[in-house]
Amino acid sequence: MATFLGINLFGLFGQLLVGLINGSFYALLSLGLAIIFGLLKIINFAQGAMYMLGAFGAWLALNHLGINYWAALVLVPLAVGAIGILLERVLVRPIAHEDHLYSLLLTFGIALMLQGLFTHLFGSSGMPYAIPDELKGGTRLPFMYLPDYRAWIIVASAVVCGGTWWMIEKTRLGAYLRAGTENPQLMQAFGINVPLMVTLTFGFGVALAGFAGVMAAPVYSVSPEMGSNLLIVVFAIVVIGGMGSIGGAILTGLGMGIVEGLTKYFYPEASTTVIFLVMVIVLLLKPAGLFGKEA
Amino acid sequence: MKAMQKSLMTAAVVAATALSGAAQAEGISDDKVKIGVLADMGGVYADICGPGCVTAVEMAVEDFGGSVLGKPIEVISADDQLKPDVGSAKVRQWIESEQVDTVAGLVSSAVVGAATKVLTDNKKIALISTAASNAFTTSSCSPYNVHWTYNVTAVANGTVKPMVQAGKKKWFFITADYAFGHALEKVATDVVEQNQGEVVGAVRAPLGTTDFSSYVLQAQASGADVVALANAGADTVNSLKTAAEFGLTQTADVAGLLVFTPNAQAMDPSTAGGMTLTTGFYWDYDDATRAWSARFKERHGAIPAMGHAGAYSMTMHYLKAVEAAGTDDSDAVMAKMKEMKPDDFFARNATLRADGRMVHDMYTVKIKNPDERRDGDDIFKVVDVLAGDQVYEPMLPECNFAKS
């Protein structure tokens, strides 16, 4: 087996690829947060709960409505997005003009309530969800066995992240969005319905979390706690990337997946800490984050 | 004659003293027997011993008749939030201002460690149903601890020993990186080595890890015959899912060292099918277990996990001991509990040892494949019954709180 400096290279390649897969997943999750913060200046702590809703939505759809994985991949994010829109209209909007802390506390409370509700309804152990038949099996690469579903995660994440980035940074709609949050009064004077845009943006960001939840259902445990475990890590990623930077969130997600993957290989005990270590260093050297604009 | 009178007098005084002593111990304090159920009501262990443990204890009280020695039995409960400080504060409050006689339930080993200290200081009995650590009857043993359902030693022995003896010599551990996981890994490692097996590697994954693919790759690269999951709950579900996804289950056996029925139900049967594990109870074992489980399910909405059945069984045994002792005085009740043999649908061929360990038959089970299942509750196939003394550790001399 090929080795370099005493390190098994095949093993290392495997870990890099696994890190990249997890990174794609992180990118997908942090994207929604970055959009909501970057465009709306709302720190959405309920994003983890929305991810959990997505996974449970997939389970409910399959077991109670007979909707398979592929349909759920489209329908569930729409449903979760609708819940997001409702949240924004009813709860978030009235305090939107207050300090960031208010929306943070509000969404954190919503997350805790949703988590408690789902524990009450479905128990704490979680629900089984099988990998769709089309994506069972895998490919034997020289250095590892790559399950088809993991390859699909990379593809889906690349398409969704790339598409979202392009839409916000390169299209007219994206330009309206960015302008509308920069100077709402002026945009409204031009006849753009800014409040509607804000609502839809919030809904879209939340729908992304729902999408990630459906993606996660076949590979991770579908349980009420699944979102809160991941949310803090994803927050750290958004902070490292620069709060509000869409591209930054995507690239940092990928990068942190790889960093975490390597830590799992060399010193697993630190794997949940390493991202926060990076966050501390980045904040010390570049307070606005790697891709953030200095305020 | 005088000498005779004197000795008679002495005898009378002694007898009177003894009687008054007995009179103090006799009867039920505060005119009721109060059982506090401390469990995880809304956290990760809520399904294995939370509201279900309260239901099980209440069922035991009802089946006992609702009163003992003519006094009512009351059940109260609280959420430990999986926090040792919250749990021990609640127990202290129960003892000091609510006249609780015993605390049942007791799930997370960390909470139980703190709670049993308070209970022992106040000479109150801890009825431990679901904690995994074996410390409560070994390194932290106490004359007031009763550990009922299972412990790490029993599940490790039950699962590991037969596999090593069947020729699966090379073992790899995916371990939860905290006290419970370390304890489980250590016990299992000892069993592997005692049976001429070899541990080829281990990774310590932080609690609550979402993605286990990195660890599964390492396990794969180690060339192990068996990959043992020394973790619990969602960690077990996640690591098993990933092991199946990366094809590990085709090249090696995966052994879950601690799997509760709700965890097994959370696993996709097509990936979990065939996995061997050890449990203290399975609802579908025989008519007696099925009858009780049907009653439990009707009230709780789900089949019982082993901790639920254990909570029922130990509460019943406690109440029988109170009746037999004629008092709710902890020392007298504990002596009776250890003297009487537990015997019900849960506790088979059972004894409560002087160290507080309840030793009973354990079950080696296999998770059923999808085509073997009648419905969602039909998850295990019992393949072997293990005599308790074969799987639990022997009593330590310093923990021999012999009945006095």
TrEMBL record, chain A:
Keywords attached to this entry: Amino-acid transport, Cell membrane, Membrane, Transmembrane, Transmembrane helix, Transport
GO MF: transmembrane transporter activity
UniProt cross-references to InterPro entries, sorted A to Z: ABC_transp_permease, BCAA_transport_permease
BP terms from Gene Ontology: amino acid transport
Transmembrane segments: 12-35, 67-87, 99-118, 149-168, 189-218, 230-254, 266-285
GO cellular component, one term: plasma membrane
Superkingdom: Bacteria
Pfam families: BPD_transp_2 (PF02653)
Subcellular location: Cell inner membrane
Membrane topology of this protein: Multi-pass membrane protein
Coiled coil: none
Family: Belongs to the binding-protein-dependent transport system permease family. LivHM subfamily.
Protein name: Branched-chain amino acid ABC transporter permease
From TrEMBL, chain B:
Keywords associated with the record: Signal
Signal peptide: 1-25
CDD domains reported for this sequence: PBP1_SBP-like (cd06327)
Xref: Gene3D superfamilies: 3.40.50.2300
Family statement drawn from the similarity comment of this UniProt entry: Belongs to the leucine-binding protein family.
Superkingdom of origin: Bacteria
Name of the protein: Leucine-binding protein domain-containing protein
Domain Leucine-binding protein: 32-368
Pfam families named in the record: Peripla_BP_6 (PF13458)
Organism per entry: Marinobacterium nitratireducens
Coiled-coil positions: none
